[in-house]
Amino acid sequence: MKVNTENIFQVIEINASAQEVFDTFLSEIKHSEFTEMAAKIEPYEGGEFEACDGRATGRILQIVKNKRIVVAWTHQKFPKGHFSIVDIQIQMSDNGCHIGFNHLGVPSSCDGWMTETWMKTYWSRLKTYMQEPELA
Fold first, then answer.
1. What digits encode the pLDDT tens for the residues 51-85?
2. What are the angstrom distances between the C-alpha of 103 and each of 2, 88, 125?
3. Which DSSP state fits 131?
């Protein structure tokens, strides 16, 4: 079955180091804390993951420490068996960290709510999470 797809590209600036952002994405505990939803993550290439209380699942394709995470990603609302690619590139900037986010192959029927969901569920929550002081 052919699925018409779209790409979502977003650029996010976060007041945190590249290592902090990278570690937060690959840590089950931190990922769950910032999204406020359960996550299971095998943090290595070939590892599986579940995020957003199990609604998003997939496999980690590439990890470049503190710089890039690429995953094969699907959502329970996607057509059965359809996977997209999420490519997160992290770079240090003058104001902390610059994230280039590219979600390739999103079914056209999902790109509207998916674009909004990435902004609300991930980027705004990550910014808030990174601004909270560490508890001793």
1. 999 999 999 999 999 999 999 999 999 999 999 99
2. 18, 9, 18
3. H
